Known about the structure:
This protein is of the alpha+beta class. The protein contains 6 helices and 10 strands.
Amino acid sequence: MILACVRDGETVIGVIRDPNSGETFKAALGQGAYVNDRPISASDSTSISVGSTGVGFNGRTAATDVVNAVGALISKGGIFFRNASGGLMLAYAASGRLIGYIEPHMNAWDCLAGMLIATEAGNQMEEIDVRSALVRGARVVVGAPGVYDDLKMIADTSFAPLKVSEVA
């Protein structure tokens, strides 16, 4: 279950529930991030080669986007992780289990809660227009401060720009 509350174009509450593990990840804007009421924080990794990066994909983007991203990640000594839930992988980035997460396009209902939780935990995030994301979705780039720039570069060089017709 993933829930996000958006007010005035800003995500202010995010909750991700993983019933398989009994974990609930949550954050409120400006109040930190938690799993089952324990504070969580981003990874302290300073290298793509120290930790795993979540990589998401779906049928709305070119397969070459993820192939290019995984190739770039591996060429820098990184490891990719995929569990079929972008929202949960964002929660894993928030808790330091992953060093980051990238995906060429996610719908708002899949990413806004996780993006808030991840940033409240200390991760860096590519800025998005939340109002636009509610309608069209968004590209997602989230990473621990020590690896964010490398993840953004991988996304910039791997993901083709989305056309409005592809995401509407």
